[in-house]
Amino acid sequence: MKNARQAAILAIIEHDDIETQEELALALRQRGFAVTQATVSRDIKELKLLKVSTARGTYKYATSGRAETSMNDRFVRIFSHAVISIESAQNIVVIKTLPGSANAAAEAIDNSHFSEVLGTMAGDNTILVVVHNESEAQDVSSKLHAMISH
């Protein structure tokens, strides 16, 4: 019963913007599950659901994977608006950003999980991305250019 209920919760939040535990309990009851608010609360905790913002400015339940995707999309938007230039030199990619934007833009790179990237360091308006070699620097540079062209 618990597995079926939790599968139903995942299906519900995938298709509907559920903002509260009460809304989720109602949706489950409409699907034939006799639940209390305490049961829904435990299920939310066990499924590790998070609240993420919607396009309307409200919040809804989402799986951590969905929340991460939403955050990554946000970081890519920030990156694309903040970056002024991207250049590679040997095994380093140097990114110039608008003043005060380097940390947020570096977070976008870190969240992209590029296998070539050994690490990033951000100042106020400059990011250094360290990779293994010049070839990887060119590859990462191309990937970063693709991020700003979206």
What does this entry look like structurally?
This protein has 150 residues and is α+β, with helices and mostly antiparallel strands. The chain folds into 2 domains: 2-62, Arc Repressor Mutant, subunit A (Orthogonal Bundle), CATH 1.10.10.10; 81-148, Gyrase A, domain 2 (2-Layer Sandwich), CATH 3.30.1360.40. The protein is built from 6 helices and 6 strands, in the order H-H-H-E-E-H-E-E-H-E-E-H. The chain has helices at 2-15, 21-30, 37-46, 64-82, 102-112, 134-148; strands spanning 50-53, 59-62, 83-89, 92-97, 117-122, 126-131. The strands form 2 sheets. Strands 3-4-6-5 form a 4-stranded antiparallel β-sheet.
Helix residue percentage: 40-55%
Average pLDDT for all residues: 89
Biggest sheet character? 4 strands, antiparallel
CATH top level label of the largest domain: Alpha Beta
Count of the separate structural domains: 2
Key traits:
2 domains; 150 residues; Arc Repressor Mutant, subunit A; Gyrase A, domain 2; alpha+beta; 53% helix; single chain; 6 strands; two-stranded antiparallel sheet; 4-stranded antiparallel sheet
In short:
By secondary structure, the chain is an alpha+beta fold. It is 53% helix and 22% strand. It folds into two domains: 2-62, Arc Repressor Mutant, subunit A (Orthogonal Bundle); 81-148, 2-Layer Sandwich (Gyrase A, domain 2), CATH 3.30.1360.
Secondary-structure map:
Layout: H1 2-15, H2 21-30, H3 37-46, E1 50-53, E2 59-62, H4 64-82, E3 83-89, E4 92-97, H5 102-112, E5 117-122, E6 126-131, H6 134-148
Antiparallel strand pairs: 1-2, 3-4, 4-6, 5-6
